[in-house]
Amino acid sequence: MNILVFDCEVYGIEYVLWRATDNTVLARGDVTGVGTRSAMLRHHLGAQAPHQLVAEKATCRDAIKWVMSTLTDPKIGALGDQSEINAVGYRVTHGACKYTKPVLINSEVMDDIADFAEFAPKHNPYNLDGIRAVRAILPDIPHVAVFDTSYYQTLEPRAYLYGLPYKYYSQHGVRKYGFHGPSHRYAAERACFLSGIPFSEARVLSMHLGRGASVTATKAGKCVETSMGFSPLEGLVMETRCGDIDPEAVIYIMAKEELTLRNLSDVLHRRSGVLGLSGMGDFAEVVEKAKAGDERAVNALAVFVHSIRKYLGAFILELGGADIIVFTAFMAEGYPVVRQMVCEGLEFVGVKLDEQVNSSVEFAEGEISAKDSKVKVYTIPHNEELIIAQRVYQHLS
Questions:
Q1: Which of 28, 84, 218, 239 has the fewest CB atoms within 10 Å, i.e. the most exposed one?
Q2: Do 2-152 and 195-384 agree at the fold level?
């Protein structure tokens, strides 16, 4: 069985084609710059070096068609024909409390994804655009949604309720939901496998540090805490999102700048975070300028790491200690300095990095803790699309 997985977001599209019979990733890639004249498709066929294609793609539908034609391209495709795709899975950001496991997509599910865009307006509409585009091309096979929020249905009320009038929860669903569920689950399970500690017994702290960033605490196979909340805006300082902030500061800024709700949302989601603090174009530039001593870059990086360490400390307390810490997504995988800064001075809770090994690991899987570290520390390449494919296969089986 060949399962194709899509993750469609405002930033672009990621995809994986997975063969279930031998657990092989046949192809994977991403499309960026949709809506411009120079959209780029990076396509990996098996273990080959990536093929880079550039073209004008105005819409998500155009980009999806591009991916599908690339997958069946005679030279760089993984398939002879689209009929070789047996099912499609999708990462969907928000499923509220309704969807606790993968679900076959029908008109009701699509209506719900649209309705839950109230909770995730920067995510669900793009997820839905991708689903519509792919179903139009492949109408006769199963399409399955896997929700970010499903991993967090084990949170207890003390973890998911806000200190607001109860009617906002009971009538309007205002509560902590949590996000990046498939990514945290994959990283935690993979780290447990590498350590030899059963997932059903381990205390794991996973850090997904990508454009969006979050920390999740898992105990005995169940999520007990996470940093993101009602929306993917809460929690850590992220690449362009502000993370935790005093609500009164938001009201003050809105009044001072005479911002509309739309403008305010744009500030908090796209013009804040590490890039907002530093004034720089991307995270790589921030790291390089920080190494060179640029004050704004140094402060931006320090604020980012400090926000991670606050949650790390709180969640270690919640778990009663930790067996495993795992880093995933590009800010963690590609920048050893981030991992070193996060783990610095944590020997008192049993965390000790092997600095030489840590500095040598970039975008690769491996243990980076010292031999005498009581807590195992790993870096695991971001691969939530693979776990989505596996969950789709399990659901259909």
A1: 84
A2: yes
From 99, 42, 104, select the one nearest 70 (Cα to Cα): 42
Amino acid identity at 152: Y
Report residue 284 as tokens. Answer: 């790589």
Of the residues 30, 148, 294, 323, only one is catalytic, namely 148
pLDDT in tens, 77-107: 999 999 999 999 999 999 999 999 999 999 9
- What is the per-residue burial (b if ≥16 Cβ within 10 Å, else e) of 220-257? ebebbbbbbbbbbbbbbbbbbbbbeeeeeeeeeeeeee
DSSP bridge pairs for 8: 13
Q: What is the rounded end-to-end Cα distance, in angstroms, of the chain? A: 11
CATH class of segment(s) 195-384 = alpha beta
Is there a contact between 235 and 229 (Cβ–Cβ < 8 Å)?
yes
Dump pLDDT digits (tens) for 113-170.
Answer: 999 998 888 899 999 999 999 999 999 999 999 999 999 999 999 999 999 999 999 9
- Domain boundaries of the chain, sorted by first residue: 2-152, 195-384
User: Is 129 annotated in the active site?
Assistant: no
Written in H, E and C, the secondary structure of 61-93 is HHHHHHHHHHHCCCCCCCCCCHHHCCEEEEEEC
d(CA 305, CA 287): 12
Superfamily of domain 2-152: ATPase, nucleotide binding domain (3.30.420.40)
